[in-house]
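Fill in residues.
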């Protein structure tokens, strides 16, 4: 297997900057490059696809449409809950971010959209839903995964970064 360019089952180290509406919202600057195993859903599909074939030292600007990133903004992904449904230790204020469990027991991200008296409106859209993502990516390293990484489908780094 050759690891001279980005392809499935290669571990890529990349430096990146993410902009939305000309505003930088995420970057690897000042921290270690992001490492991920290609082809296992560890980064958004559009980004992975655009990076195929890149070589070490190569950088690229990619624009990713919402459908290939965090999805379209869903007008239906709102829910009204009574204020007293929140645990006492959660600050109930507009813009607060929380994790809630849905009926299936899955953790869902939510943001408090607005508070109207005792009614609280939760927004389940990802903060970047509906946004066009502008990435600048630079490949700084490529390597073969360990057999364990391949088996688990993600990189084993002791750094605890999860995107």
């Amino acid at each position: 297997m050759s690891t001279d360019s980005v392809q499935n089952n290669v571990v890529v180290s990349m430096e990146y900057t993410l902009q939305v509406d000309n505003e930088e919202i995420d970057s690897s600057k000042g921290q270690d490059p992001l490492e991920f195993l290609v082809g296992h859903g560890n980064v958004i599909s559009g980004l992975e696809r655009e990076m195929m074939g890149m070589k070490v030292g190569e950088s690229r600007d990619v624009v990713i449409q919402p459908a290939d990133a965090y999805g379209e903004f869903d007008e239906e992904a709102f829910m009204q809950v009574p204020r007293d449904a929140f645990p006492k230790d959660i600050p109930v204020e507009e813009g607060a971010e929380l994790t809630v469990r849905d009926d299936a027991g899955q953790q869902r991200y939510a943001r408090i959209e607005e508070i109207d008296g005792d009614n609280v409106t939760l927004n389940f859209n990802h903060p970047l839903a509906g946004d066009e993502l502008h990435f600048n990516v630079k490949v700084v390293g490529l390597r073969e995964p360990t057999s364990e990484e391949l088996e688990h489908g993600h990189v084993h780094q002791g750094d605890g970064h999860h995107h």
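The first strand starts at residue 11 and ends at 20.
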